[in-house]
Amino acid sequence: MTDGGADYCFECIGLASSMADAFNSSRVGGGKTIILGVEMHGKAISIDSTEILKGRCIMGSLFGGIKAKTDIPILVKRYLNKELHLDEFITHQVDFKDINKAFDLLIQGKSLRCIIWMDGSMNNFPFN
């Protein structure tokens, strides 16, 4: 289907077998496999080492490759300077007593991000 393998393969499930399948689906001579899922059963990935010698690459990415110590302060500064518009991703807010409403909205596909207020201070937030 890909005429020799995909240039980029991503594994997001968290199973060693699907990680190996993603790697084996990459193109010989330069295909890259990026592991995003955490192996949920603690199993090792089984890959034929000669396939790496053929130019395939496998790598991981934790939290999208963000470097918390240096990147988070930059992101916070951009947010405070109104350059990074995170508020637009918050679609709903509920008090903790209404947490089931948040799950219902998520299941119905109506919520992108929901803030759950633990102390009932929902009405004190800037974008209400």
UniProtKB/TrEMBL annotation:
Molecular functions (GO terms): alcohol dehydrogenase (NAD+) activity; S-(hydroxymethyl)glutathione dehydrogenase [NAD(P)+] activity; zinc ion binding
Domain Alcohol dehydrogenase-like C-terminal: 2-72
InterPro entries linked: ADH-like_C, GroES-like_sf, NAD(P)-bd_dom_sf
Catalytic activity: a secondary alcohol + NAD(+) = a ketone + NADH + H(+); a primary alcohol + NAD(+) = an aldehyde + NADH + H(+)
Pfam families: ADH_zinc_N
A GO-annotated cellular component: cytosol
SUPFAM superfamilies membership: GroES-like, NAD(P)-binding Rossmann-fold domains
Superkingdom of source: Eukaryota
GO terms under biological process: formaldehyde catabolic process
Keywords of this entry: Metal-binding, Zinc
Assembly description: Homodimer.
Protein name: Alcohol dehydrogenase-like 1
Native organism: Platanthera zijinensis
